């Protein structure tokens, strides 16, 4: 009993300071945090200069596009005399009325939308599947598949073998899939997605296997949901490629009702320019129609960028640095 009392008397003074000391420390930390917040609220000179530079660069990129839009709304006589102007004066919709006369452009819009939507869906699915198999480093499978995906980056079989394959072997002449299938796999995008998949935490995959999940369930329920940034970037690249495609349509499609938008506009430019050179349609708005066709062509695909903007930078940087 006598030995226990000194221990209690000696520990009591040591415990009392530990309870009282955190009060002033917390106050000091709170004051330091408030000072840091005030400093953060003050914009630095580098931040101001960066914002000014980015806004200026954005205006430099936006002004040429606006000049094209303004030129497409300017009368042909003013374009031929004064050239381009910042504001459409006088205002004229003759080019758009000529382009949208009839249903040919609308049919081409439908064909282009089909090629872009269906082609992007097939391309993203195929690219993701091949990239996941290569990233898994499976024996006897991943390395040959990586070589198979890498070879088209160096050389291709040529135009004649591709034409024979599409028209005679696959029997896809005058089919929109003749435009889609040759562009389904982009080797560069495959390896971008491979590097992203290799950065997936292995612990998550191992825990899913312990819980009894198979490879397909892991891929569809775990890997794909956490790969939204790189999938959005790849889908955007494929969508732009399919939207701008016209060469394969020129090779494999002869029915005018199935022409994509790019091919229709190219033919329309050529016919109007040739007719104007011959003098048969001297009043045709040739210059105005060229600008209007540019606006019609790039307008819809330009609207797709804001939807993928939040994934764009993240997907590119993660896919390029991980692995």
What key attributes describe this structure?
323 residues; mainly alpha; 76% helix; flat; disordered C terminus
Task: Give a written overview of the molecule.
The chain is mainly α and 323 residues long. The chain is built from 17 helices and no strands. The protein has helices at 4-20, 22-41, 45-72, 76-82, 94-99, 104-135, 142-154, 159-169, 177-180, 187-198, 202-210, 215-226, 228-243, 247-252, 261-278, 286-302, 305-321. The longest helix has 32 residues, at 104-135. The chain starts with a helix and ends with a helix. Residues 1-22 and 319-323 have low confidence and may be disordered.
Beta fraction: under 5%
Overall spatial form: flat
Describe the biggest sheet?
A: none
Estimate percent helicity.
over 70%
Q: Kindly, what is the distance between the CA atoms of the first and last residues, rounded to a whole number of angstroms?
A: 66 Å
Seen as an oligomer or otherwise, the chain set is single chain
Rg estimate, integer Å: 31 Å
| Average pLDDT for all residues | 79
Which stretches of 5+ consecutive residues score pLDDT under 50? 1-22, 319-323
Category from helices, strands and their pairing: mainly alpha
**What is the tally of helical segments?**
17
Order of helices and strands: HHHHHHHHHHHHHHHHH
Number of strands: 0
């Amino acid at each position: 009993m006598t030995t226990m009392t000194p221990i209690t008397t000696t520990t009591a003074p040591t415990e009392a300071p530990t309870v009282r000391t955190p009060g002033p420390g917390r106050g000091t930390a709170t004051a330091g945090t408030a000072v840091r917040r005030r400093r953060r609220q003050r914009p630095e000179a580098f931040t101001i200069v960066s914002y000014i530079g980015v806004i200026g660069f954005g205006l430099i990129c936006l002004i040429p596009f606006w000049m094209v839009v303004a030129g497409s709304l300017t009368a042909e006589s003013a374009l031929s005399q004064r050239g381009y102007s910042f504001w459409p004066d006088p205002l004229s919709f003759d080019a758009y009325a000529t382009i949208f006369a009839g249903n040919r452009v609308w049919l081409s819009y439908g064909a282009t939308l089909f090629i872009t939507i269906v082609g992007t869906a097939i391309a993203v699915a195929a690219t993701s599947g091949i990239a996941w198999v290569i990233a898994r480093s499976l024996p006897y499978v991943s390395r040959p598949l990586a070589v198979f995906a890498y070879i088209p980056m160096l050389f291709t079989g040529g135009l004649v073998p591709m034409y024979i394959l599409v028209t005679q072997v696959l029997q896809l002449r005058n089919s929109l899939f003749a435009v889609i299938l040759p562009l389904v796999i982009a080797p560069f995008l495959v390896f971008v997605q491979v590097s992203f998949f290799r950065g997936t935490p292995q612990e998550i995959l191992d825990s899913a296997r312990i819980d009894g999940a198979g490879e397909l369930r892991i891929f569809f329920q775990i890997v794909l949901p956490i790969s939204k940034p790189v999938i959005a970037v790849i889908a955007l690249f494929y969508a732009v490629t399919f939207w701008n495609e016209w060469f394969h349509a020129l090779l494999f499609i002869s029915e005018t009702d199935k022409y994509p938008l790019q091919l229709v506009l190219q033919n329309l430019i050529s016919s109007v320019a040739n007719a104007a050179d011959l003098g048969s349609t001297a009043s045709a708005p040739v210059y105005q129609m060229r600008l209007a066709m540019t606006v019609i062509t790039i307008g819809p695909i330009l609207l797709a960028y804001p939807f993928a903007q939040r994934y764009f930078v993240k997907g590119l940087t993660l896919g390029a640095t991980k692995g």
